[in-house]
Amino acid sequence: MIPDIQLQLKSVIKSLKDNVLPAVDANNELAQQQIQLSMATLDMALNNLSVIHGVLRKDMQHHLAMAQDLQAAISDPTIQGQLSQLIGDTEAALQDPSRGFTDLQTAARALRDGIGTAIAGSESDAAKVEKVVLAHSDASLNLGRALNKPTGFEPAPELIPSVESLLTT
């Protein structure tokens, strides 16, 4: 039998709600807040489960486009070479259907770290780099905001598009 992650998460949430929450000292505000936060976090993970792989791939595509534009904007051949390697690694990761979620997360982190390193090392091209970063930041930011909209921190959540709509653009 293949474990059903959705069923497992639902079971943990139910157990926390039915068994752990009532056992937490009602006078311990911090413990009450933490169990509520834990259950809400698990519930959000459960609700995002159907889209999280697509969100990661889309975010990698956004950062890949940024890396490509940075490569064109930065004049330092060493940084260009580093970006070229990152671009190739990321393209390979995105094209390989056998890459699992955690493997893609590792590739995404490497890409973001490499972009940060390239930006930090490109002082002589700062104006061009700034334009590239600003041009690409909205897409990733909007995806993150849409994914985290259920947390309730958005001042105008009705203005944030759905994750599903951002995955199709």
Question: Any overview of this molecule?
Answer:
The chain is an all-alpha fold. Helix 3 runs antiparallel to helix 6. The protein is elongated, with a radius of gyration of 20 Å. It starts with a helix and ends with a helix. 15% of the residues are buried.
* Radius of gyration, whole Å: 20 Å
Total strands: 0
Contiguous runs where pLDDT drops below 50 for at least 5 residues: none
> Which structural class should the secondary elements be placed in?
mainly alpha
CA(first)-CA(last) distance? 36 Å
Q: How does the major sheet shape up? A: none
CA-based shape: elongated
> What's the helix count?
7
Please indicate the percent range of residues in DSSP E strands (runs of 2 or more): under 5%
Query: How many domains, as an integer?
Result: 2
Average pLDDT, to the nearest integer?
94
Proportion of helical residues: over 70%
Q: Strand-and-helix sequence, N→C? A: HHHHHHH
Can you give keywords for this protein?
0% strand; 169 residues; mainly alpha; elongated; 7 helices
Which SSEs are present, and which pair or pack?
Layout: H1 5-23, H2 29-48, H3 52-73, H4 77-95, H5 101-120, H6 126-147, H7 163-167
